[in-house]
Amino acid sequence: MLYSNVNNVRWANQAQTIIDCEVEFEGIGLAPFSATQVDIHGHGSEIFGRAVAGEFGSIAPYEAPPGPDLDELVARKLDDINTAFSAAAGALLAGYPIEERLTWPTQQAEALAWLADSNAPTPYLDGLAVQRGITAQDMRERTLQAVQAWTAASQQLVGTRQALRDAVLAVEQAELSAEQARTALDAIQWPAS
Q: I want to staple 171 with a disulfide (CB 3.0 to 4.6 A). Which of 105, 138, 141, 184 is the partner?
């Protein structure tokens, strides 16, 4: 392809294997163009070679695109934390259909009322016991154990999420350089299980 003018020559990558420029092509006009030494088009490798030889002036240095700003880094980190929290909480819920989980507040209220007063009525738990073929006492005890286990596990998960969120927000409020903030945010991780 015939071309006449090549200007605004600059490296397009750190490795200096691609040159971005503007080229005046016959029949097309001025157009952005990227040239490489091994370009599949003859004019591409020719433009690269001539640019490296200095025929179009000095090649401007590569400029890395700007990284995300602090607000974006904070938003990403909070999203990562929330995603990890949801995955961990999901593991606690695995195996229980949503319809059953909708009964948990009722089961919890009755089990806690029974814990506070062994004479408290537990009609829902009693009905479950009948359907399961176990005693009402056994159902109450099993439900209370499940409530206590869930409470302990959810306290750990929610507390961890809140602590990590607080750490992210502290980085956001601190007067740190961009690199210091990035490093501090990278260090905030959901604990491995």
A: 184
| DSSP for 10-77, written as a single string | EESSTTS-EEEEEEEETTTEEEEEEEETT-SSHHHHHHHHHHHTTBTBPPBPP-PPP---HHHHHHHH
Closest CA to 62 of 19, 22, 14: 14
* CA distances to 21, 46, 52, 58 from 30, in Å: 10, 17, 21, 20
Each residue of 22-69: pLDDT tens digit? Answer: 999 999 999 999 999 888 888 999 999 999 999 999 999 999 888 888
**5 in helix, strand or coil?**
strand
Looking at residue 127, its pLDDT comes to: 98
Q: Which tokens in the block code for residue 27?
A: 């029949």
Answer for the pair 21, 6: CB distance below 8 angstroms, yes or no: yes
Separation of CA 135 from chain center: 47
Secondary structure class of 2 (helix, strand, coil): coil
